[in-house]
Design brief:
With 250 residues, this protein is mainly α. The protein is built from 9 helices and no strands. The protein is globular and about 55 Å long.
Length: 250
């Protein structure tokens, strides 16, 4: 996760942020008390705080990557995580607009545009752009995203604007998983990032099931966060994977 040349001060800070994120997310689940309905234990403040910590970690990683070929990769991922935090705030109803779900989709969608920009830019710059692998993985994940949207959001429903808006959003998240998988197939150091992008998509599909299809099971809201949070963490800390790749590249 950490490149060899990382100064001890940065290593301690990034490790500390990772521990704090885990305490907020998993500690909030373990120590939280069930709310009025049995859908969650995790308090709102620990969920939002965990995303805030990841955003801070992302910008610290971007600072570490300055002056290296991973500079833009780090900056785009940090921007993506920033919009992820805005998406969390919107979904929680903490931003001043009425359409919290549509606003969340917009914020997360913009975040994934930044993630895709990071993946494409780094892959092109480092020769990790074999067309068969990159576009093959992308097509596979697009099919997964399309199938997930159809089964969970569209099938059996009377579609509204929000149902249709969820389609390009699902394909956008699937595209991140696809390009991250294509990168990982060429450079295994990026496998955690691919897992993170897949967890993000899984989390979103579970959330969509609750929003559009009435899916409910005990602690479903916590399951959404226990897949989404680790997914975002693995994406953010992939900046370290990029720096490690640069150290080992010929």
């Amino acid at each position: 996760m950490f490149p060899n040349h990382l100064p001890p001060s940065h290593r301690y800070l990034l490790t500390g942020l990772l521990i704090l994120w885990a305490l907020l997310l998993f500690g909030g689940f373990v120590l939280g008390r069930p709310s009025g309905e049995p859908l969650r234990r995790m308090p709102l403040w620990t969920r939002i705080a965990s995303s805030l910590v990841l955003m801070i970690a992302a910008w610290l990683w971007a600072l570490v990557a300055r002056g290296t070929p991973a500079q833009h990769f780090g900056q785009w991922l940090a921007l993506g995580m920033t919009f992820g935090l805005l998406g969390d705030l919107s979904m929680a109803g903490l931003l001043p607009w009425g359409q919290r779900v549509l606003g969340g989709i917009a914020m997360f969608g913009l975040g994934h545009v930044f993630y895709l920009t990071a993946l494409m830019g780094f892959g092109n710059g480092q020769g990790l752009d074999q067309p068969g692998i990159r576009w093959g993985a992308w097509c596979v994940w697009l099919l997964i995203g399309l199938a997930g949207w159809y089964v969970i959001v569209f099938r059996g429903q009377t579609p509204t604007f929000l149902h249709w808006a969820a389609l390009p959003y699902a394909l956008l998240l699937a595209s991140t998983a696809g390009l991250a998988s294509g990168l990982a197939l060429q450079a295994p150091l990026f496998a955690p990032m691919a897992v993170g992008a897949a967890l993000f998509l899984l989390s979103d599909l579970i959330l969509a099931g609750g929003l559009f299809s009435g899916l409910k099971f005990p602690l479903i809201d916590d399951v959404v966060w226990l897949t989404y949070g680790p997914g975002q963490m693995l994406i953010v800390y992939a900046i370290g994977s990029a720096l490690r790749f640069l150290q080992t590249a010929p």
